[in-house]
Write a structure and sequence with these properties.
This protein has 396 residues and is α/β, with parallel strands linked by helices. Helix content is 37%, strand content 17%. The protein is built from 16 helices and 15 strands. It has a five-stranded mixed β-sheet. β10, α6 and β11 form a beta-alpha-beta unit. The protein is globular and about 55 Å long.
Length: 396
């Protein structure tokens, strides 16, 4: 885009210099896509590890980062953000707005345009670090939650995000941050992992990395639907108690797949068949780590990968926290979280309650001091203030 200047900030030690050293000085980064067009090239105006060099004056700030790093980045860039900035995450994951309000302050957030994409616009991978990337699957349509300053339209921000992403996927406005938090599609990664490994000896290496999405079995497909069923039960309880709450953009995982990948699914019968026949996910494998054995290099599961370190504390555990506030039982969600936290060596859920020693590493409402549903919904502007009589009447 000729009228857009992109600067990259990396706080990871040595990453900015490594990126700059790898970059092609003339053309920048080559991007191959799945839309049938010629490869495109893009070159950042600056790559730095210094927020003071990158952030001041920026009109739009996008955190295209693992969600467990959001807090650190927001803290470091906070002194350099200008008033009214458009700031958000791609993707947002669950509880992004809670994290932003906690660090930037509610007054700053309310005077800015905070946004979060429901998911990444593409399934993609790095081909050669700093030089080339490949888009394996461009999604058809995705949602974005946008919270502009009071009295201002979200359409201007929506058009800017669409311009930056390109014509596809089409970005549609989501209901609010609560809807994006609850509909987090990354409940898929932990559930597929649990479904695949649940009956396997985790100490026995694989000869090669097993396929991820297309390696699901029917039972795993059913579990994905059951987790989504439980989340939709949370939605129903919230809507019954707060009739004015807008959660219209929330979808079951079955409908999420149809929305994102409608033209790339071979068999749309159910979640299992959609994942097995998805052209957008063909060839993607389980995250693995290489190990040396007497028979040569083999592979063991990498439970430090973002499918666990990101999708649990900034995904499933956040949803579980809201379910706990709403009084909704989530047995399948609990089963997946319990297995995942064990293989991660973490502890979030203990005896059916979110009170584990690592809970402070998550973005669940309880970490930010919310212990009752009404306060949680009102203070985060998901609903207008309700009187106690309103709440009781809505619950009946």
């Amino acid at each position: 885009l000729p009228d857009v200047s992109v600067c990259i900030l990396s706080l990871f030690p040595g990453e900015a210099q490594r990126f700059e050293d790898a970059l092609d000085d003339e053309r920048g980064i080559r991007c191959e896509n799945d839309l049938g067009s010629e490869p495109i090239y893009g070159k950042p105006a600056m790559i730095s590890s210094d927020p003071a060099a990158v952030v001041p004056g920026s009109d739009v700030v996008i955190l295209a980062l693992p969600s467990f790093t959001h807090g650190d980045y927001l803290d470091k860039i906070k002194p350099h953000l200008k008033p009214g900035v458009i700031i958000g995450s791609m993707p947002g994951q669950s509880g992004f707005d809670l994290c932003a309000r906690s660090i930037l302050g509610s007054d700053f957030v309310d005077a800015s345009s905070l946004f979060a994409l429901e998911t990444l616009p593409w399934a993609c991978r790095i081909v050669k670090y700093g030089q080339s990337v490949q888009v394996l699957g461009t999604k058809t349509e995705i949602g974005a939650v946008i919270a502009p300053p009071k009295g201002q339209s979200l359409e201007d921000v929506l058009s800017i995000l669409q311009k930056l992403v390109g014509p596809k996927p089409v970005i549609k406005a989501s209901s609010n941050f609560l809807a994006v938090t609850l509909m987090n599609p990354n409940t898929v990664h932990p559930t597929i992992s649990y479904g695949f490994y649940r009956d396997k000896d985790l100490t026995k290496p694989f000869d090669e990395a097993p396929v991820f999405y297309q390696g699901v079995d029917e039972r795993t497909g059913e579990m994905l639907s059951q987790v989504s069923d439980e989340v939709m039960q949370v939605r129903d309880v919230l809507l019954k108690r707060y009739p004015s709450l807008d959660l219209s953009s929330m979808l079951h995982i079955r409908d999420v797949l149809l929305r994102y990948y409608s033209d790339k699914l071979g068999d749309k019968t159910n979640v299992y068949t959609m994942l097995k026949t998805s052209a957008a996910h063909r060839g993607l494998v389980h995250p693995m780590r290489e190990v040396d054995t007497p028979q040569g290099k083999k592979y063991l599961p990498d439970f430090k990968y973002r499918y666990f370190t990101e999708d649990l504390p900034c995904g499933m555990v956040v949803i579980r926290g809201i379910a706990e506030l709403a009084g909704v039982a989530t047995p399948t969600l609990d089963e997946v979280i319990t297995w995942c936290q064990t293989v991660m060596g973490s502890e979030f859920l203990v005896n059916g309650k979110l009170c584990g020693k690592d809970l402070h590493l998550t973005r669940c409402p309880q970490v930010y001091g919310f212990t009752d549903l009404d306060t949680f919904l009102k203070e985060n502007h998901y609903v207008e203030a309700y009187s106690e009589s309103n709440i009781l009447q809505a619950a009946q």
